[in-house]
Design goal:
two-stranded antiparallel sheet, flat, alpha+beta
């Protein structure tokens, strides 16, 4: 809602996010800086183990 984008939001127990994605938000009346929202799969995911998710996030942080 904050970005006005059309991103999926999970509302049940099935996981919605499978990959890390970034949404840039610019609010010129508050700051000249951009805010980056980083969406990651959650822990206790229905498709990946917590270790897989942690490794995915760690690798993304290392590269980024």
């Amino acid at each position: 809602m904050a970005t006005g984008g059309d991103k999926g939001v999970g509302h049940n127990l099935a996981s919605c996010t499978t990959e890390i994605s970034i949404t840039k938000f610019h609010c010129p009346d508050r700051s000249d800086l951009d805010v980056l929202f980083v969406d990651t799969p959650g822990f206790d995911d229905t498709n990946k183990t917590d270790v897989e998710i942690l490794n995915m996030i760690a690798e993304w942080l290392k590269v980024t």
